[in-house]
Design goal:
167 residues; alpha/beta; three-stranded parallel β-sheet; 15% strand; globular
């Protein structure tokens, strides 16, 4: 996910084409829907350690030849762009906010360093997104309810979304 992707969303949501530092980003939880959530709900893929590597189901479909982890994520520049717009956090439906080939995890460092929420492996199965491959930007209210586990720095989270049907 690049800055250009986010600017395109901003243009659509604001309807003006301007790039101001005002809403829709201020205080937002920005969730990226890549379609990879579907891999988690398919029984044959849930325990497939090779799913995100060469030889895995999706890798074969897209002719990925690397043996490294591979899946989409936010770019470092996109994380910085969102942070400058004072988002509360970001989320994605893949294993990591950083791209699968990342070894330094700059998105994690940027967002956690600023005290922002990070939500990974988002399951969008209860949402409708229109035609396959289409991109629809939505707004609404998000409630993240993590399990309280003493001493844990991360946990499973129930993510509740109330989508504004007017957009």
């Amino acid at each position: 996910i690049t800055v250009a992707d986010l600017e395109s969303v901003e243009k659509e949501l604001l309807g003006t084409g301007t790039t101001s530092l005002s809403p829709p980003w201020e205080g937002a939880l920005v969730l990226a829907h890549t379609g990879w959530w579907k891999l988690f709900i398919e029984a044959q893929n849930t325990k497939n350690a090779d799913l995100y590597k060469r030889g895995g189901t999706l890798a074969k479909e897209h002719q990925i030849t690397t043996t490294d982890m591979w899946f989409p994520g936010f770019s470092k520049e996109a994380a910085e762009w969102l942070l400058a717009r004072n988002v509360n956090g970001i989320g994605i439906d893949t294993l990591s906010l950083d791209c699968g080939s990342s070894e330094e995890f700059p998105v994690h460092q940027i967002m956690l360093g600023a005290g922002k929420y990070q939500i990974e492996n988002v399951n969008f199965s209860d949402m409708e997104f229109g035609e396959e491959g289409s991109c629809r930007h939505r707004t609404g209210v998000a409630i993240a309810a993590p399990m309280l586990v003493e001493g844990a720095f991360e946990s499973q989270t129930r993510l509740l979304l109330q989508i504004d049907n007017n957009n």
